[in-house]
Amino acid sequence: PPRSPDLNPCDFYLWGHLKSFVYKRPVNNVHELRQRITNGFENRENPEVLQRVRDSLERRLRACIHAEGGHFEHLI
Questions:
Q1: 25: pLDDT confidence band, cut at 50, 70 and 90?
Q2: From residue 9, how far is each of 18, 20, 34, 47, 59 by CA, in Å?
Q3: Cβ(18)–Cβ(37) under 8 Å?
Q4: 46-69 residue pLDDT tens
Q5: CA distances from 63 to 25, 35, 43, 45, 54 (A)
Q6: Is 1's pLDDT higher than 60?
Q7: Do 7 and 61 form a contact (C-beta atoms < 8 A)?
Q8: What sign results for the dihedral spanned by CA atoms 61, 63, 69, 73?
Q9: What is the superkingdom listed in this entry's lineage (predicted)?
Q10: Per-residue DSSP letters for 40-66?
Q11: Is the pLDDT of residue 7 over 80?
Q12: Quick one: CA torsion of 75, 24, 38, 41, rounded to 10 degrees?
């Protein structure tokens, strides 16, 4: 579907990755939070992370095609 969050890597992968990276341990202050967010964004360029994004996007595209553009989250 047009503008589908199911096919937007920021929605289906990046925010979840960043959230788990930032909050894997309790945050003690705002400075630490900012640093973890910065480190998390830098980590997104890691080749292993990018490969997982590509693999996930491919699975989602195939599910979208299988669902003929309809809802497909249940197929993933």
A1: very high
A2: 12, 16, 22, 15, 12
A3: yes
A4: 888 888 888 888 988 888 888 887
A5: 34, 36, 28, 26, 14
A6: no
A7: yes
A8: negative
A9: Eukaryota
A10: HHHHTTSHHHHHHHHHHHHHHHHHHHH
A11: no
A12: -20
Residue type, 66: H
pTM summary value? 0.56
Domain limits, the chain: 5-67
> End-to-end alpha-carbon separation of the chain, Å?
16
* 32/61 Cα distance (integer angstroms): 37
Q: How far apart are CA 12 and CA 5, in angstroms?
A: 7
